[in-house]
Structure formats: C-alpha cells, structure tokens
Amino acid sequence: MDDLDARRREQHKQRLSWMPWLYFTLKPRHRAWAEAWQKEVQDRLRELETVEIAEGCFISPEAHLFAEPGRPIRIIGPGVSIAANTFVHGPVVLEAGVSLNARVSLDGGASGIHIGEGSRIATGATLYAFDHGLAPDRAVREQPVTSRGIVLGKDVWVGANAGITDGVRLGDHAVVGMGAVVTRDVPPWAIVAGVPARVIGDRRERRRSGTPSASWSPPDDSEQ
Question: In sequence order, which residues have a C-beta less than 8 Å from that of residue 32 and are 6 or more positions away?
Fold first, then answer.
C-alpha cells in the first residue's frame, strides 16, 4: 500500500468513527480491512472491560466504554453502532440495531440502562440512571446516590442534546425532541419536547411516509 492509499484508509477510518452508519454499507473491497480493524477494536475491549459484543457491530476506537465486574455492557444484537467520543458506563444493555452517535453519554448507575431494538440516540444526548439527594443539611458532594434505571423501548428516537433522567421509561416508537429534558415516563408513539418535556404529538397521527420523492443514500466510497 503506497502512502496516499494508507492516508486515505486512515481518513476513511475517521469517517466511519464519526458516521458509523456508513460501516454497514461498505463496498466489499473496504469491508475486508474494516472488519479486521473492528475485530481488533472489539477484542481489545473484551480483554480490558466486562463487555459482551454481538457479531456485526461497529464501535469507534475513540468511544469510551467502561464496564467493571458487576456493571457490564451487553451489546446483544447485530447492527449496533457506537460513534466517536461517546461515553458508556455500565450496566448498559443495547439491543440489535441501536445507534449511539457522537458525544452521547450513558451512565447506568446501579440499576442500569436498557435500550430497545432499533432505537437511535442522537449526538450529545445524555442518559443518567442515577440521582443525588438534595437535603439541606449536607453538601452536594455528600448526598446519597439513588438509582432506579432507565428503559427505552424499541424504535425510539432521542434527539440531539436531549437529556433523560433516572427512573424514566420511554414506550416503543416514542420521539424525544432536540434539547428536551425528559423527567417522566413517555407513552408509546408519543412525541415530546421542551424543558421539562411534555407530549406535543403522536407519531400515528403523522402522514404516512409512502415512497419518498428523493431518497438519501450513502456517499460513494469507490475512490476512497
């Protein structure tokens, strides 16, 4: 491999790390080196942390996964993608097809975070499955920590920079708007937005997508 080809490959790795959905559409000539690269990344995580990773997933080498014994990270289905600069601290379970985009933060506290099949977590979203007390007779740093856990159903979309607090359950097919702060349970199919988040719509009342007039497709990587 000449120097230009090597630099193009390294650039392509950066592209995949920040836009990991492209990994699943790679052409065969790129897939060979990309799968070998991913095997190295994932084997290293398995060696150093308490992680379970299903076949057919993508994890950026710039992602930060921490899973002590008793606080595992379990990626239990194929098609999961974890982008660069994410922070994931177990206990966390990710079902098939879950995507964590760049700079997402998940901390499972003591009770854990469970994200259902096909759910999408956009850039900068934060899910923290623990909380601190607010008693006035002690400093914040001395407050007891509680944890009830967070559960997202399947096909949930959490918008960029949204926050989800401990104890919240999101029903299947729910949508959380960009920048929302979710402090209470969200029903299936509901669209919520605002601070604190409130229901502003229902996905079932939206127009059917049908056949789009112009569909998006991944960029052609044939020259990379």
Answer: none
pLDDT at residue 224 is higher than 50: no
> Quick one: CA dihedral 126, 127, 133, 138, positive or negative?
negative
Per-residue tokens: 122: 């956009």
3-state secondary structure of 166: coil
- Three-state DSSP state, 158: strand
For the whole model, what pTM was predicted? 0.90
Closest by CA to 182, choosing from 168, 172, 202, is 168
∠79-82-88 over CA atoms, to 5°?
125
Q: How far apart are CA 56 and CA 108, in angstroms?
A: 24
How far apart CA 209 and CA 99 sit, in angstroms, is 22
Query: For residue 79, what is the DSSP state?
Result: T
Tokens read off for 148: 């009830």
* pLDDT tens readout for residues 29-39: 899 999 999 99
Dump pLDDT digits (tens) for 84-112: 999 999 999 999 999 999 999 999 999 99
Reduce the DSSP state of residue 175 to 3 states and report it.
Answer: strand
Q: 41 — phi, psi (to 5°)?
A: -60, -45
